[in-house]
Amino acid sequence: MRTDTGQLFRLEDYRPSDYLIPQIHLTFRLARDTTTVVADLTVERRAGTEACAPLVLDGDGLKLKRIELDGYGNPAHEATSGKLVLTNLPEARSFRLLIETELDPDRNKALMGLYRSNGVYCTQCEPEGFRRITYFLDRPDILSVYHVRIEAAKAEAPLLLSNGNPVAGGELGDGWHFAEWHDPHPKPSYLFALVAGDLGCLRDSFTTMSGRTVELAIHVEHGKEKLAAYAMDALKRSMKWDEDAFGREYDLDVFNIVAVSDFNMGAMENKGLNIFNDKYVLADEATATDTDFANIEAIIAHEYFHNWTGNRITCRDWFQLCLKEGLTVFRDHEFSADQRSRGVKRIAEVRTLRALQFPEDQGPLAHPVRPRRYREINNFYTATVYEKGSEVVRMLRTILGAETFRSGMELYFERHDGQACTIEDFLKVFEDASGRDLSQFGLWYNQSGTPNLTIKASYEAGTLTLDIEQSVPPTPSESRKRAMHIPLAFGLIGSDGKETGFTAAEGATVENGVIHVRKRSHKLRFHGVPERPVLSLNRGFSAPVTLAIEQRPEDLAFLVGHDSDPFGRWQAFNTLLTDALIAGYRLLLGGKEANYQKDIAKLAGRIATDATLEPAYRALALTLPSEADIARDIGRDIDPDAVLAARSTLSAFIAAANREPFGKLYEELEDRGPFRPDAASAGRRALRNVVLGYLARLEGGADIAERHYRTATNMTDLIAGLGTLAHEHAGSPRTDAALADFAARHATMPLAMDKWFQIQSTTPGTKALETVRALMRHPAFHIDNPNRVRALLGTFSTGNQTGFHRADGTAYAFFADALLEIDGGNPQLSARLATAFRSWRSLEPARQEKARQALVSIAGANSVSVDLRDIVERSLA
Ligand code: 0A1
Ligand code: ZN
């Protein structure tokens, strides 16, 4: 593990490499502790490079066993574990270089490079894992054709997979065998993959739009093949959708997916061989919740879509990560919107963006969608690169219109297939397709921070005036900001609930229901507006901004009932709830009781029982802003205990006012037929479970929650029952009995046990720390397994505001120690978990100080990885 402070990489320092590696032939001889890797590289000096230029290959912790220049013998070289420098190279433009390295997959706990998960050999090479396998030009602009030979003991690894198509295989004697794979598409090293092990398999096939048959396979632990059926279905739907929506066809004879249980992220798009965290593959009603099903669908699609946006067209360098990630997230969002309910999907996306990206953009870890600096690229797989990156692509479509956007995408695929590109290349295709200048729009990639729009509206004699001011707050190393191009979708709603028109607009461009805010301030006048309209702004969340506008509660309530935009309706109610919660919070802080207006409870009751609304939408609307959401909107001096109290009282208040209709709804929504994972069925379960949460606040609530748990016939309901019981009635004998029952029933199912850990770590209150400490000693807790660590420590730090931010600071100290322990094996994981501290400056002063001390203690520890140090130091800066 590297524990220095790390080199600073800068975008402006990008240079093409002196050498290319058009071909690589890799031979693996797999064994747990000594795997040998022979890399046979065809190296080409780039035109213009002098013959004396050294060849500098990347390595990370490698042991060099042999090096030969074909026909020239042993070359002049200097090898360290981190670099291999070759000098006095042949005059010839092209030569072959043979490198043999030795690896120990069993000892690889960082889960980068070649490692073993549950006895299965697998690899993770993005972003810089290939250099842990062999010395190489490990950068995404080096594209090579790979030929891979894998040799292994047949008993240990009957299955041998790599990228591309299988081309040979056979016996080697002594119980060993081999397979060879050839990938005809030149690719960067981060897309290399190998899997070898003893796995079960679910097979299917897909016929592409040009009539080619692709063999599909999902490899999972023996006995779990049936649990891959939903993922397989999602894969086939993804393949079809990419043909229909983007004209993209798959380009190999086979497509393999492998599920492993130890994985740092969600999944990886290796060419023709996607490797997945098994959490995003395995599902049936007994083991997975509806959220799991939706995530599986989205992530299967995401990785598949990377085949074109990421693999065929890749990134020139890691600063351009959003080129593939923002675009691919946009594509998976569109896919899910088409498969499910578009309106509901959009609301869920915005909730995620606000929960994960806004705090990043508003805190010490803020960075542009395309960063210009990094010390550790692993720390830039962020919500800003992924989620905000997707929002930027969405805005591009809003600005250009769907048709021009589509022709820009066509041009992108046509012009850049087989290349390693930049954001400039991406924007240029849209400029060419539309004839527009997108330089101001490009600021979305280069300027960090969430823009704020302050809007004042007035109406007089047929004219509606909007005074619009935009500002982008200062963020680390960017104090001055330029005005951005913000596409603000809007509607003007008349007293009859219908859209009212206007005859002319001046002061800003208004096109197709979108106001184009491009200056710091606009005075926008709509003429010919027949009456004072109610404003629906940022419809569909057309721009990732915060909006400050005074709207009367009665106008918001009107929007809840009348906005034709589902997001707008949801937003209006959410604003009412947030305003009420913040008012309640302030009262509680002042030593008073939180009191709430009857209207809000009535409105909640009306939404709950409005049969014209989709159940999934009603469920989202009735879900109160989380404690973290409320804290974010309060912004500073946060006291998490008062936030929890405000939220619990509002929940109880709404429940008490709607006891009867909620009770009826709860009965009506009971699922009596066979389980179906589709969006409509999931929506009904979601609504019923939200209603359960309210009913559980009332007298007899524990009985309902317990009955819910006992009678559940699927994991969604089981978790809803257990979670409600555990969170509302922590420590009661019936809760303990239910928890014990769950553990006994699911002891052999790690993914279900993760949920068991998570429910306990998110039980509100100071006692959670004790629980989490005890669970770290539980025999089922494994510090090397990222899913388990995230289920216990990740959810504790991000999903338990009162437990993690307990006033005495002991949870911070505990967490800092845990991070250091994790850091010893898996720096990527510790660094990611450490981001839980990022909003420490918005806490009240006493907690702030304790959180700061915890961060300082990590920074001062003996051996801290570059990854963790980077997060901690930026958080403290
Ligand atoms: N490209 C993957 C994300 C990913 C990144 C790094 C990984 O290992 C450390 C694994 C996956 C995606 O966007 O799905
Ligand atoms: Zn991705």
UniProtKB/TrEMBL annotation:
Coiled coil: none annotated. Pfam families: DUF3458 (PF11940), DUF3458_C (PF17432), Peptidase_M1 (PF01433), Peptidase_M1_N (PF17900). Residues 26-191 form the Aminopeptidase N-like N-terminal domain. Residues 449-548 form the Peptidase M1 alanyl aminopeptidase Ig-like fold domain. Keywords: Aminopeptidase, Hydrolase, Metal-binding, Metalloprotease, Protease, Zinc. One of its GO terms (biological process) is proteolysis. Its cofactor is Zn(2+). Its EC number is 3.4.11.2. Residues 554-877 form the Peptidase M1 alanyl aminopeptidase C-terminal domain. It catalyses: Release of an N-terminal amino acid, Xaa-|-Yaa- from a peptide, amide or arylamide. Xaa is preferably Ala, but may be most amino acids including Pro (slow action). When a terminal hydrophobic residue is followed by a prolyl residue, the two may be released as an intact Xaa-Pro dipeptide. SUPFAM superfamilies: Leukotriene A4 hydrolase N-terminal domain (SSF63737), Metalloproteases ('zincins'), catalytic domain (SSF55486). Residues 230-441 form the Peptidase M1 membrane alanine aminopeptidase domain. One of its GO terms (molecular function) is alanyl aminopeptidase activity. PANTHER family: PUROMYCIN-SENSITIVE AMINOPEPTIDASE. NCBIfam families: pepN_proteo. Belongs to the peptidase M1 family. This is Aminopeptidase N. It comes from Aquamicrobium defluvii. The gene is pepN.
